[in-house]
Design brief:
0% strand
């Protein structure tokens, strides 16, 4: 085999595997009680998910192929095939992408990071907590954890590491760079689980839950995640510090560097004040969305309008936000297909069938087993979105069939849809960015990722379970 044949064969496989999966499923007989169109839609859905994983085309392009296939095969009408583009939850995440651009453009995100560094950065563990705190503050309004960790936190992390002459290329990664990289990554995994708007696939989970009669709100999500989330944010950097300690423990120069950068930024400018006001407005209206009767998407739309009218963002900024428009396409396709899989009877059939297998063990044991399978199967996924799209709805359906309290089932699986990203260097968007810097070897990343997954499970199932009991979720 010649070298040029290898990428050619990979490309053929990347195109052929989704097509083969779809063809096989297309001709399978429909189960009893399931509309034949449901099996056809399943074939297209599975082919789309396999395509998203193998990436023969960009994710948005794969999603567009899926939308086209549902219409031209008459599996759905053209109105049904395009119905996802009118979904209000999808527009919530798209609008949040636009708003997040304001944090980066105005420099407010960097200022927040340097403030935490100046406050906590005299020790390496404090620096780790400062990076995590930055991510936590930005998480409610920046739905791309890649943008938070890669666009705001990582440049600051790297500058601190290099200030202490910690570089992967000369064998000094463990001086401080490796610890900061691991702390920042694991922090963004946790903060992504704490808010509905903190990760792009979270609203997808919420929409899939809604299709099965469980409504997840921004406030309900945040309150349920508060106690286990904060505890995980406190414990995980400390665990990393103990298991992979940096050689440099005292870091007074980092705090001095942060103060110097803050002096260079100068006083808070008009655009930063507007951005800060808009952020506060969004949080207040999201928290009060129930009493005020203002949908969270309408609040996000108001936030974008404020930034446009005040000139913090230009319309060109909105048009250039490629991640938002890309999300609109693939999100619409996946939500549309998942919704009609439920409507056509396939998800209810799967839930009832698999639920029988766990029926004799009780909902607590059965749901715990389901959740662990859902969690650790992420070793086989390179995307939160692909995992949520493929497994969230059927696993939620089985959990409900077992008698698991609906809100508890929907939220735990949604939280796990973020926490399972801790384990590998490819499982979520920020992972390749931070791992690619070279500070942490693959073996170390996986070893600590497994340990952190166990810590998070203990916190979120143990302490979280007690907190959810107090909240009346079960």
């Amino acid at each position: 085999m010649t070298a040029p044949d290898v990428p050619h064969r990979r490309r053929v496989f990347s195109f052929g595997a989704p097509l083969a999966a779809g063809i096989v499923l297309w001709f399978l007989p429909s189960p009893s009680g399931v509309d034949p169109a449901g099996m056809h839609l399943l074939a297209i859905f599975v082919a789309t998910i396999v395509g998203i994983i193998l990436k023969p085309l960009p994710m948005g392009a794969v999603a567009m192929v899926g939308i086209c296939a549902t219409a031209v095969t008459h599996t759905l009408t053209i109105n049904e095939a395009l119905s996802g583009f009118g979904n209000r939850v999808i527009w919530l995440i798209v609008l949040a992408f636009f708003i997040s651009r304001g944090f980066i453009k105005t420099g407010l995100g960097a200022r927040v990071a340097y403030l935490f560094m100046a406050l906590l950065g005299r020790r390496s563990l404090g620096l780790g907590y400062g990076l995590v705190a930055t991510d936590l503050v930005l998480a409610p309004a920046i739905p791309s954890n890649t943008a938070r960790a890669g666009g705001v936190v990582f440049p600051i992390l790297r500058s601190v590491a290099e200030a202490y002459e910690s570089r992967p290329e000369d064998g000094t990664a463990r001086r401080i760079g490796a610890f900061l990289t691991l702390a920042a990554f694991q922090g963004t995994v946790i903060t992504s689980a704490m808010f509905l708007t903190a990760m792009a696939a979270n609203p997808l989970a919420a929409e899939l839950a809604s299709a099965q009669g469980v409504e997840l709100t921004w406030v309900g999500w945040a309150v349920a995640a508060l106690v286990p989330g904060v505890l995980s944010l406190v414990l995980v950097p400390w665990v990393i510090y103990r298991l992979s300690p940096p050689e440099v423990r005292e870091t007074p120069a980092a705090a001095a560097l942060a103060r110097e950068r803050l002096r260079e930024l100068g006083a808070v400018g008009r655009t930063e004040w507007v951005m800060l006001f808009t952020f506060a407005l969004l949080l207040v209206l999201w928290v009060l969305s129930g009493p005020l009767g203002i949908h969270t998407t309408a609040t996000a739309l108001l936030g974008l309008v404020v930034l446009l009218v005040t000139g913090v963002l230009s319309w060109e900024d909105v048009l250039r936000e490629r991640g938002a428009w890309d999300t609109l396409v693939w999100f619409s396709a996946l939500v549309m297909m998942a919704s009609f899989l439920t409507e056509l009877g396939l998800i209810p059939w799967f839930s009832e069938t698999v639920g029988v297998w766990f029926g004799e063990v009780g909902w607590v044991t059965g749901f715990l087993a389901l959740s662990l399978i859902y969690f650790y199967s992420h070793y086989f996924f390179a995307s939160n979105t692909a995992h949520v799209s493929a497994m969230y709805a059927p696993f939620l359906g089985v959990a409900l069939a077992l008698g698991t309290p609906p809100m508890l089932a929907a939220l735990v699986l949604a939280f796990f849809s973020n926490l399972f990203s801790s384990m590998t260097h490819y499982g979520t968007g920020p992972a390749p960015v931070l791992f690619g810097a070279g500070y942490v070897e693959v073996r170390e990343w996986w070893r600590l990722g497994l340990v952190v997954s166990l810590v998070n499970l203990a916190v979120w199932v143990g302490v979280g379970g007690l907190w959810w009991r107090v909240l009346g979720l079960w």
